[in-house]
Amino acid sequence: MGEQFAAEETVxxxxxxxxxxxxxRILGPLRKAxxxxxxxxxxxFLGINAPIxxxxxxxxSAPVTIIGPxxxxxIEEGCIIAKRHIHMHPTxxxxxxxxxxxxxxxxNGDRAGxxxxxxxxxxxxxxxxxxxxxxxxxxxxxxxxxMVEILGD
Length: 153
Known about the structure:
With 153 residues, the chain is mainly beta. It has two domains: 5-82, no CATH class; 85-151, no CATH class. The protein is built from three helices and eleven strands, in the order E-E-E-H-E-E-E-E-H-E-E-E-H-E. Strands 1, 2, 3, 4, 5 and 6 form a six-stranded mixed beta sheet that branches. The chain has a five-stranded mixed beta sheet with strand order 10-7-9-8-11. The two termini are 27 Å apart. InterPro entries: PTAC. Belongs to the PduL family.
């Protein structure tokens, strides 16, 4: 379960403002097309007009330049702001009675709040976890590994 990984290797991404973000982690598994996921804050800093999309939905998304140890490439589409979502294994889906679709999530703590329009994705190679970007995590004071409550749709 969980064929996704974070490689030790990193790249630099360069936006239209000629500003760069270094040490961007490479994630897997490999995809059919190159994809770069950034936050809203990153998009403003880099000058990239990236759409909010689920991972893998890159058609007509933003261009970006990727710089690695062997040179640079520019992709004409593939840069997105990742839409918040939950990965769930079918066993967890059945256990909690949550199918693919849209849910809301309650976050407790000093900066408590509710995240709406959270996509649930169920696949055999997923571990049960929620993926949000650093902007969302910081706004609600969420720490890695923190428990949240799925409210339903």
